[in-house]
Amino acid sequence: MSESTYTIAQEAMVQQQLIRRGITDERVLAAMRRVPRHLFVPPVMVNEAYLDKPVPIGYQQTISQPYIVAHMTELLELPAQGEVKVLEIGTGLGYQAAILSYLVTQVYTVERITQLAKEARERIIELGLKNINMKVADGGYGWPDQAPYQAIIVTAAAPFVPPPLIDQLADGGVLLLPIGAKRQPQYLLRLRRHGDKIEEERLTPVAFVPFLGEHGWAE
Ligand code: SAH
Predict the structure, then answer these.
(1) How far does the centroid of ligand 1 lie from the alpha carbon of residue 82, in Å?
(2) CA 137 to centroid of ligand 1, rounded, Å
(3) Which residues are registered as beta bridge partners of 178?
(4) How far is the CA of 63 from the centre of ligand 1 (A)?
(5) Quick check: 216 and 158 in contact, CB under 8 A?
(6) pLDDT per residue as tens digits for the range 66-117
(7) Using an 8 Å Cβ cutoff, are 139 and 158 in contact?
(8) CA 94 to CA 119: how far, in whole Å?
(9) Is the pTM value of this prediction over 0.90?
(10) 56: left (phi over 0), alpha (psi -120 to 50) or beta
C-alpha cells in the first residue's frame, strides 16, 4: 500500500469505527488521525492495520482494536491543561503510548517482554516521540519513582486490581483496566481517587490478552 492509501484507510477508520460508534472527544480523534497505525504492526501485517480488529504482534500478544484504543483513551478523561503524567502497563509495540504522547506531558510505559519493548522503542524513536519513557519490568508494580499519575491505563486483563497501581494514582486521577477471566468474560473497570476514597465504575465488556506477573495471572 502507498502512503496515500494508508491515509485514506486511516480516515475511514476514524469515521466508520470511531465517530460512528460514538467517540466524540476531538483531542482523541486528532491523535487517532495523527499516529500512523500501520507502523505499529509487524511488517507482514500492514494490510490489516486499519481494520476493525486487534492484530497479532508476536509473542502471543496483540495491538488492540482501534475502537478500544480510542474508547479507553476517552475514558481516561485526561486534563487538557497543566502537567499531565500518564502510566501505561503493557506497551506492546507502542501504539497506545504513541496516542497518549499527543495528549499529555509525559508518558511512562512498562512492558515485560524485552523484545517487544525494544521494537516499540525503535518505532517511537523513528517517529520522534520524545515524551515517551519506557522500561522493561513487571508492570504490576507500576513505576513508583515517577508517581503520582493523573491517569493509569492497563492494556492486559488482570484478575484483580494491582494494589501498587492504586497507590500511584494522583488525587482525582483515573485508573482504567480490563478485569476478569484469563480469556473471557472481561470488562473495563474505572477507578477514581478522591483522597483516601476510591470510586469504582464497571464499564464496557472487552477481550484482552492476560496480564501476567506478581499481581496478575501465572504464566
Ligand atoms: N498497549 C498495546 C497493547 C499491548 S497487548 C498497544 O497499544 O498495542 C498487552 C501487553 O501487555 C503485551 O505486550 C504483554 O506482554 C503486556 N503485559 C502483560 N502482563 C504484563 C505485566 N505484568 N507487566 C508489563 N506488561 C505486561
Answers:
(1) 28
(2) 11
(3) 188
(4) 9
(5) yes
(6) 999 999 999 999 999 999 999 999 999 999 999 999 999 999 999 999 999 9
(7) no
(8) 9
(9) yes
(10) beta
For 53-206, the fitting CATH number among 3.40.630.10, 3.40.50.150, 3.30.1780.10, 3.40.50.1260 is 3.40.50.150
Question: What are the extents of the domains in the chain?
Answer: 53-206
Helices (H), the chain: 3-12, 26-34, 66-75, 95-101, 114-126, 163-167
Residue 157, CA distances (Å) to 67, 90, 113, 129 in order: 17, 10, 16, 27
C-alpha cell at 180: 476478569
Longest dimension (CA), the chain: 52
Catalytic, out of 2, 4, 64, 101? 64
Matching residue, cell 483522597: 195
SS3 39: helix
Nearest residue (CA) to ligand 1, atom 2: 92
Q: What is the pLDDT of residue 167?
A: 98
List all residues whose CB is within 6 A of at least one atom of ligand 1: 61-64, 89-93, 95-96, 110-113, 116, 138-140, 155-156, 209, 211-213, 216
Q: Are 91 and 97 in contact (CB under 8 A)?
A: yes
SS3 (DSSP) at 206: strand
Among 16, 17, 29, smallest CA distance to 103 is for 29
Selection from 211, 157, 149 nearest residue 175 by Cα:
149
CA-derived radius of gyration, the chain = 16
Listed as ranges, residues in the chain with pLDDT below 70 are none
Give the type of residue at 30: A
